[in-house]
Amino acid sequence: MKDKYIENINNRFNGKTKDILLKQVDLFYKDNQNIIKNKYNVGEDVKLKKGTFIHGIFGELENFDYTINNGFIAVDFTNQARANKISNSVGMWNIKEDILLRDYIEQYSGFTITYSIGRGPEATNVSELIPYHKFDEVTERINDSEEIWMYWGNKTKEVSFIPSWVSNKRQIAFILNMESDYAKELAYNDVWNLDFDREILENFLDYRYVDKFIDNERFNRDASTTDRESAIMFGLPNCLIEGIFVGRKIEKDTKALEYIKDKLPDCYICNLDGKVIVGNM
Which residue in 48, 89, 122, 261 could disulfide with 231, CB within 3.0 to 4.6 Å? Predict the structure, then answer.
């Protein structure tokens, strides 16, 4: 497969972008890396360190084997490219601070709210990530403010892509440990990285967004747009997988849990409470 990806890159890219992607493929297939993986017993709380990546997949087990057999590779290199805002990369949820998995899930199982401070052309929009079951508390605070005139909200993007307390549409997400030097070298090639210039970004962004990314330091990301994402050029290898967290349906499915553990024997499995239900000690 490596030769196939190299051919794809040579046919579609030039200059600095081509060099970056070819290096990324070499790193992807590099052997004998000192991969860091945290170990857990059943019942322990999973702790996410700053820089940890999380990636959810569609469906239940139907896409599981493909991911663990091939790694996380941008669809543009494996299938017909889709019209995405960001292409030739793999989306990851990037943990911004040390946090318990349970607390992280509580945060993104809520919604994002945007409110307008002031009125008219001088008004400023502010977005906040509102944790699960905190809606009343936040809206009461907003309604008591004499400066806030309008507000509106949406579900968080995470709810659409990884298991959550409010939706069963996603049942599996991978936790990737990014602590090693090897992992950090791969993660550097992030479309959101401010080190990359227009020449490079034009190969990863829909033309409608290039100017916004360049002129506004990557589109002025906030809690709504969101400021919690990474887009890793080409992709990341499956050796970085540390654990799996599953939705309520799979948590109750003994055969599914056994299947996951058989495929990833050195990884733990945890639930939406952030507790390990299958250990890896």
Answer: 89
